[in-house]
Write a structure and sequence with these properties.
mainly beta; flat
Length: 48
């Protein structure tokens, strides 16, 4: 069974980004660059 998150690294002229993404989906869902970092939160709500 594949992992829930895969490590992603993007490199281009003078810049880079590294983070994680679900298998098969493009983009970085949580990660960082030299200047910025972002993440994903899960706000679970009790609906009983």
């Amino acid at each position: 069974m594949p992992g829930v998150w895969y490590r992603v690294e993007l490199h281009w002229v003078g810049r880079w980004a590294v983070g994680v993404a679900p298998p098969g989906l493009p983009g970085i869902f949580g990660g960082m660059t030299e200047d910025l970092a972002w993440g994903v939160t899960a706000a679970l709500v009790d609906q009983t």
